[in-house]
Design a protein that fits this description.
mainly alpha, single chain, 123 residues
Amino acid sequence: MRTSVIIGILVSIGVLVQIALGESGLVHLMRIPHAILGYLGVVLVAVYYYLNRKSKTVSIIALVLLILTVLQAIEGSLLFFGLSQRTMDHRILAYVLLAVGLIGGILAARFRRTVTGAVEKTQ
């Protein structure tokens, strides 16, 4: 399995865990682990973008995910340090990130299959 696919799976699991933490109400008890997972998510999405930079379609999807993840981390940091009380923005952005990630993952998988199928047919 390709490294970028494994990182994509880890990012997906991380988003689901973060949403589960946020929706469960346990985030107040686990603020520091929630923040660390969020920052780790930014790094993983940046690595995912870097690994997919050769594919224009997948790199665009990864760039959108990276921008959303950085915005999510900024919003989370503002909440963490008490500089914002807009928790709903943070929640909505989490679901947007999940939706874009799912749609992007489906498109990336289809694109990879199309490219792989085209290469196999030419050989």
